[in-house]
Automatic annotation (TrEMBL):
Stored Gene3D superfamilies: 3.30.70.270, 5' to 3' exonuclease, C-terminal subdomain
Protein name (record): DNA-directed DNA polymerase
Gene Ontology molecular functions: DNA-directed DNA polymerase activity
InterPro entries documented for this protein: DNA/RNA_pol_sf, DNA_polymerase-Y, Rev_trsase/Diguanyl_cyclase, UmuC
CC annotations in GO: cytosol
PROSITE patterns recorded: UMUC (PS50173)
Length: 193
C-alpha cells in the first residue's frame, strides 16, 4: 500500500485499540502496546475481541499478545501469529504455565531486540531459547553485552523494565518526492507527473 494509505489504516487501528483499553502506546506504524490494568475477565477473550473489532472495522487481521512485560507481550504476539490456527490470534502468557511453554518453545533469535550478532553470542553461551535467556544471570549479561540485553532477560523473567511510554522509537517524518533528473525551467513536467 502507498504510505498515506498505511498511515490512515494505522490511525484507524490505533483508534480502535485506544477506544477499548485504559492506556495505550503507539510503538510503530503497525504495533501498539496497551495497558490492561483494570480490564475485568478473561484477557485472552478480551484480546480476541480487540482482534475481531479491528478485523471488522479495517479488514486487517492482527495478532494480540498479552504478557506482564512489554517483551513478554511481544513474545505472546509472535506466538499468536505463529500458531494462528491454535490461538485464534490472541495469546495470554500472564499465566506462568503458558509463559514457560512459550519461553521453552521460542528460539532466542525470535526475542525482541536479539539480532543476528547477539544471537551468535548468546548461542556461544548455550543460550538457545527464550527460557535460557530468561534464566541467565542478568549481571553476567550486562557485563558481557549491555544493559539492554540485561533488561530483555529480566523482562522475559517477568520483571517489567520498560513501562508504557518507554522505548518508543523517536518520531520520524518521511518525505516522498520525485526527481526529474534534470533542471526544470517550466511547470509543465511537474503538472504531468
Amino acid at each position: 500500500f502507498p504510505f498515506h494509505i498505511n498511515g490512515d489504516m494505522s490511525e484507524r487501528v490505533m483508534s480502535i485499540i485506544e477506544s477499548m483499553v485504559p492506556a495505550s502506546e503507539v510503538y510503530s506504524i503497525d504495533e501498539a502496546f496497551a495497558g490492561l490494568t483494570g480490564v475485568p475477565g478473561d484477557l485472552t477473550a478480551f484480546g480476541r475481541r480487540i482482534r475481531a473489532n479491528i478485523l471488522k472495522c479495517t479488514g486487517i487481521p492482527v495478532g494480540v499478545g498479552i504478557g506482564p512485560t512489554k517483551t513478554l507481550a511481544k513474545l505472546a504476539n509472535h506466538t499468536a501469529k505463529r500458531l494462528l490456527s491454535y490461538t485464534s490470534g490472541a495469546v495470554d502468557i500472564c499465566d506462568l504455565h503458558n509463559r514457560n511453554w512459550v519461553l521453552r518453545n521460542t528460539a532466542v533469535s525470535e526475542v525482541w531486540g536479539v539480532g543476528k550478532k547477539m544471537n551468535a553470542h548468546l548461542e556461544a553461551m548455550n543460550i538457545r531459547t527464550a527460557m535460557d535467556l530468561a534464566t541467565a544471570d542478568p549481571r553476567t549479561l550486562r557485563e558481557r553485552f549491555s544493559v539492554v540485553i540485561e533488561k530483555t532477560a529480566r523482562e522475559l523473567a517477568g520483571t517489567s523494565c520498560l513501562e508504557l511510554g518507554e522505548a518508543a522509537p523517536p518520531k520520524q517524518e518521511i518525505c516522498c518526492s520525485r526527481m526529474f533528473g534534470k533542471r526544470l525551467t517550466t511547470i509543465q513536467p511537474i503538472k504531468e507527473a
